Amino acid sequence: MDTAEDRGVITRAIFAGLCASLVGIGLARFAYTPLIPPMIDAHWFAAKDVIYLGAANLAGYLIGALVGRPAARRYGARSTLRAMMLLASAAFFACAYPLSVSWFFGWRLLSGISGGIIMVLVAMTVLPHVPAHRKGMASGAIFLGVGLGIAASGTVGRCCWTWACARLGWGWACCRCC
After folding, report:
1. Alpha-carbon Rg of the chain, whole angstroms?
2. Helix (H, G, I), strand (E, B) or coil at 169
3. SS3 state at 98
4. With a threshold of 0.85, does the pTM exceed it?
5. What is the pLDDT of residues 56-85, one digit of tens each?
6. Cα–Cα distances in Å, from 107 out to 79, 112, 133?
7. What count of other Cβ atoms lies within 10 Å of the Cβ of residue 98?
8. Domain 4-173 - what CATH class?
9. Taking the domains of the chain in order of start, what are their residue ranges?
10. 104, 35, 162, 103 alpha-carbon torsion, rounded to 10°
């Protein structure tokens, strides 16, 4: 029978999986899409460049999906997941300023690679620590993170853009809607 301590460990593992899929797939992949029109309106990039930046992220996901398991074998799944969460977070911050198309391309590619690796590793890392009778719930929670990230990307992401325009002095980079 589960003890309170066991349930706490299991709950934390499931929540970590939810957070990993939220960041690695929900945000790292889908936060970019709702910001395309404001980035074009703000003259960060030309419309043709923005499409290439989206493609860089998708190519990164393919690369990440292919190298995820070998990376986990070499460095350990937990260490790899932690490193990819840090890389995805660094990519968010690196894309906060429109330095150049190549800068964004590189960081969008790295964001995709980290998201692809997270996508491949999160369930296989969390589920072995979950008892059989809770695996269905755990799997659902892990993939709930994707949906929460997509929902946050479409709503909160746009609000954050507007807030940054108004509060951080990004008026030079903001579109008419800010």
Report:
1. 18
2. coil
3. coil
4. no
5. 999 999 999 999 999 999 999 999 999 999
6. 21, 9, 40
7. 14
8. mainly alpha
9. 4-173
10. 0
